[in-house]
Amino acid sequence: MSAETVRRFVSRKTVASRHGVHPETVYRLVRDGKFPKPIKFSPRGACRWPEHVVDAWEAEQLVRAQQGGATAGLTP
């Protein structure tokens, strides 16, 4: 498997840490449609986001901010 095909998954705690918010804020934004939904890995609730999805969301937010538009942002 090449480096390009390796996919990493990040936890809610990691996403929250990347954006400086409480982990519960991440799920609130998902519920409000302002952040991508995670992938559920187990029936008991283990959820993760593909890192490339989080990266793409961040890039989209930067473009919106640079264009002067409102951003969804991970803000409480």
Compact description:
The protein has 76 residues and is mainly α. The chain is built from 3 helices and 3 strands.
How would you characterize the overall build of this protein?
The longest helix is centred in the last third of the chain and has 16 residues. This protein has 3 helices and 3 strands, in the order E-H-H-E-E-H. It has 76 residues and is mostly helical. The mean pLDDT is 85. It is 43% helix and 11% strand. It is globular and about 40 Å long. The termini are far apart.
Keywords:
76 residues, mainly alpha, three-stranded antiparallel sheet, 3 helices, 3 strands, globular
Rg, alpha carbons? 13 Å
Shape verdict: globular
Helix and strand pattern: EHHEEH
Physical arrangement of strands within the biggest beta sheet: 1-3-2
* Count of beta strands: 3
Contiguous uncertain segments of 5+ residues: none
Helix content: 40-55%
Question: Could you give a short account of the major beta sheet?
Answer: 3 strands, antiparallel
Cα distance spanning the termini = 39 Å
